[in-house]
Amino acid sequence: MVVVLLPNFGVSFAMKSTTNISTDQLALLALKTRVNNDLLATNWSTATSICNWVGVTCGSRHHRVIALDLFGMNLSGTIPPDMGNLSFVAFLDTGNNSFHGSLPIELANLRRLKSLLLSNNNFNGEIPSWFGSFSKLQNLSLGGNNFVGVIPSSLCSLSKLELLSLYNNNLQGHIPLEIGNLSRLRFLYLHNNQISGFIPSSVFSISSLLKIFLRNNQLIGSIPSIRLNMSSLEVVDFTFNNLTGDISSDMFDRLPRLQGLDLSFNHLAGPIPMSLFKCQELKDLSLSYNHFEGIIPKEIGNLTMLKFLYLAENNLKGEIPQQLGNLTLLIEIDIPANKLTGKIPLEIGNIPKLERLNLESNNISGHIPPRIFNSSTMRTIALDVNHLSGCLPWSTGLWLPKLEQLLLGSNEINGTISTSISNASKLIELDLSANSFSGYIPDDLGNLRDLQFLNLQFNNLARTPSSPKLSFLTSLAYCKDLRVLAFSNNPLIHGELPISIGNLSISLQTFDASDCNIGGNIPVEIGKLINLIRLNIANNELIGPIPTTIGRLEKLQGFFLEDNNLEGSIPSELCCQKSLGFLHLTGNKLAGPIPECLGDLVSLRHLYLDSNKFANSIPSTFTRLIDILQLNLSSNFLGGALPIDFGKWKVVTIIDFSENQLSSEIPSSIRDLKDLTYLSLSGNRLYGSIPELFGGLIELQFLDLSRNNFSGIIPKSLQKLLHLEYLNVSFNRLHGEIPNEGPFANCSIQSFMGNEALCGAPQLQLPPCTHNSAKHSRKATKLMECILLPISATLLILALIVFFFQSRRKHSKQKNDLENSIGLAKWRRISYQELYQATNGFCESKLLGVGSFGSVYQGALSDGLNIAIKVFNLEVEGSFKSFDVECEVLRNIRHRNLVKIISSCCNVDFKALVLEFMPNGSLEKCCIRIPPSWSDNSCGPL
């Protein structure tokens, strides 16, 4: 605050002590030096009183300049700082000039200002915050400049402000919340900026507000509710924003004087609020291009002051209320592109001042009320794209002296076109297309001298039988402003284009006569229509050559002659049409070489020369067509090679060279066609392999290489073509495995038949791949030759190794037999409890014998196995050692005559060995026979 006030204080102090009328004069002379204007140069002279200068007003009391009005004087220049010395000025208007630059801070000294009007210049920079110091300011107009930044909140302190006009700048940011402080504000113009954010609810607390314009910004959110009675508000314009949500049902209860409401081009939804129909002073209602739904309430008939009704492009349904007929002041009814049904109310024909009726693109049915065609004020009748039926009244045109547009296309209207329509002498546009009109095309349409647009396409109209020439074309020569003439898809059988076609309006831009069964030659006079942009006479029975006068149509962008019987060659004069973007000559009998000069038509996007008799090669100049999108040369007699510089067509999407006599490999430059979706080279003499590079054409949807001489394998890279829907490589010389992934998963045998040695999946009805191709066979043979001897040697070594191990195995078996005879029986874990049960508690009946270190018992385990258990007596000295020694000895020795150890049982106070029970006694018993006489002795021979 201090930084701002100190400079201003210094300036104000200096002015207070020194300013006078001379100071005012110096200030204006300083302005004079900054602008370029002859009037000021001569009139603002020191030889005359400053109070007599143009635009200057002096006060009678202080004899100082109190007003400076320079509005619309064609001044250009900048505002000098000296203007801050006009300390008594209360009115300053520099509007509608060409001032530029920023505003000098010295203007902050103009504290008596009540009106500061700087609109429609080229001022730039930010809006100064020091405008907030103009406490007496009532009108601030800065619209139509190049101000940037935000709206200073300091402006909201101007308590006397009535006009705030900031339209047509580059302002951003939000609307200040404090704007509600401007309690005397009547006009708020913020339209055509880049203001964002929400609409502050405080805006609708300014009861004095008359008009608010916020259109064409970036405002979001819903429209705030109105809580106070705004009895003065007349106009609300919020169009072209991003407002959303429903409008509150009581929104308009407090706007009794509302005259204009424009909310179009937003995203508002919900039903039209019923409170709106309480605004009986409403004259202009625009809710177009939103998402309003529901019906048009019959209460709309209460808006008796309504002049303009715009409800286009919503989701309104139901019937058009007949109460619209009560609105006798209506000038325009515009409700296209909704979902309206039912009939057009008869009452609409009673609206005396109606000038525009637009109900197109709905679902309206029934007949058109005849009264609509009896309105002397009507300028536009737009009822196209509905389901209207019946015939047009015979008097159509008689009572429509001001009618400029009659648009009835895309309905179900039948009958003839009445000749009375030619009485609508102001008619500019006549669209009767896509109906069921029959009869003849009236010859007196030429009476519509102001006609610019005539569309009669898609009907059942015929030519006048009295002459083969299309006589109505002769009459249209009187329509000197005619720009569009379209009558395609009518049965003008055996009609011919008259030479008078050259007399049609020189302003003609579109001529469409396709699908009409027209015969004869193309008149050379057609070359007089030098402003033609589109010429379509395709799908007829035209004969003869293409006239060389076509070359005069230098503005031609679309030329469509396909499916006729034209002969001869393409005239070189056609190459003069440097703007030509579409050339369609398909399905004629044109012959000769394709002109090289077509490659100079660099604007070409579509070139269709297919199904003719063109010979020679594809012109090398075609690679200059770097913006070509679709190129079709199929079904001709073209030979030679494919263009090497394929890759220059970087944006091409369709290439069809099929059914010719082309002979070459596919050039590698094809890899650059990244946008290609359709490629057909079938029915030629192309050879070589299918390039791996095809895998990079990731947009490809259609690929036909059939009936050529391609050889080699099908590249697996084609599996990458995930968008490929059609593939045909049949009748070539391909071999090897057919890939099975990507697009190949959906292919049938028809795509591959007629090749040499393809193999693949069973569903293709081909043999499985077992390296049976010639290439693979040769490789396999070489491979076998290379490894046969090493394999044989290896097998011999393996045989010797097997023999060696067999010998070892036999020896090992013998050893195992020995081990099995003396070694460990299959080891098993046996608990003390099992031993206790097997010996009945180690009872004496199971005792086999007693030794120095223990006792031997016989027992039987639960599975029936007979065992012998040697239980060591742990109380005898050396028994522990004896147990360990026996375990170690029996573990390390092997003999067939030694008993087998089954297990052991060992804990702190019990140790035992479990042995196989020998039912025949011991070895000693078998080997040493003791005579009975010795049995009683205590000792015997050894």
TrEMBL record:
Keyword hit for Aminoacyl-tRNA synthetase: no
Subcellular location: Membrane
GO molecular function: ATP binding; protein kinase activity
Chain positions recorded as ATP binding sites: K870
Keywords: ATP-binding, Glycoprotein, Leucine-rich repeat, Membrane, Nucleotide-binding, Phosphoprotein, Receptor, Repeat, Signal, Transmembrane, Transmembrane helix
Residues spanning the membrane: 787-805
UniProt-listed PANTHER family: OS04G0122200 PROTEIN, PROTEIN KINASE DOMAIN-CONTAINING PROTEIN
Protein name in UniProt: Probable LRR receptor-like serine/threonine-protein kinase At3g47570
Gene designation: LOC18594189
